[in-house]
Amino acid sequence: MNAAKVFVFAPADESGESHKRLREQRCELIMGKPAWDTPQGSNEAEIAALAAGCDALVGTSIRCTPISRTIMKSSDRLRIVAKYTIGVDDVDVEAATELGILVTHSPTESNWGGVAEGTVTAMLTLLKKSRERDRHLKAGGWRDPKLQGTYVGARADGYAGLTIGLIGLGRIGSRVATLLRPWNVRILATDPYVPDAKFAQHGVTRVDLPTLLRESDVVSLHVVLTRETRHMIGAPQLALMKPSAIFINTSRGPCVQEPALIEALLRGQITGAALDVFEQEPLSSDSPLRNLGDKVLLSPHNVSNNVGSGLGPGIRWATDSVLAALRGEVPDNVYNREVIPRWQSRFGGASVWAT
User: Fold this and answer.
1) Is 252 noted as a catalytic residue in this protein?
2) Which one of 171, 281, 327, 342 is the catalytic residue?
């Protein structure tokens, strides 16, 4: 009986349990380098050589060398590229679709739900001046008018409350809306890929992006990184925002033109920003963002990292996806769903081990 060849392009399973599962199912594993998770260097030729003749590719983020058309074309047997993570911006999804290859991801609630909770935490930290109050008291101070926070929700005395703008109403954006709904705030959102029914379900008003930017007191970004969303927030968009507004990005760094955001903060075009992601990661030691004090709240791309989260759930899910695809079955978390009919005509019902 034939063995299936699986290339673990960016290993992250320190327990080895997923590797054991794959080997028990008669999979031959080719192991990549954990260092490929870092953004430095390019290893396309080496990765393509290792992927040659493989039935499946699986791994975590691979920032040094995305899974390109060249890598995927190195095997005419390739059925699936499975990610341990939610994001697939390090996979050429368009090329995979053209080649008839499934791309799966692992949107585990413990991760994306953590991003939503972290977004609300960042918003409240900035609005309520939690850091400033803590620092002031520890330095020996007491009440100070400068420490006045911002009331979030509408009140019976006529205070209208804040307007929260969500760019993207997918899993994370809609969870943020759900978390904020009891706060009695006005929530706007823009998302061309979400039906009106979902806006209504979450009590959100659909608007276009310029309207959202002009009217929101808090603008929070919740999009995946695509050609369409890369640098979607730049100087023209920031100029539309209120000077009192804050900007939050817990999605992907390259969706924002970082120099434009820094300039907007320095010039007071907006009041503050909370960032968990950056254009270049890790954030360089000389980044101006590190010197903006309380204008920014920074986090090292780990807002989703909470008890019960991390890569563990995604590793298990991606492993399930690989085994399903190798059996000739469509996994439940296909990102490029438009490829499914073509994939089924090629591999549907055909087990690798039976060929």
Assistant:
1) yes
2) 281
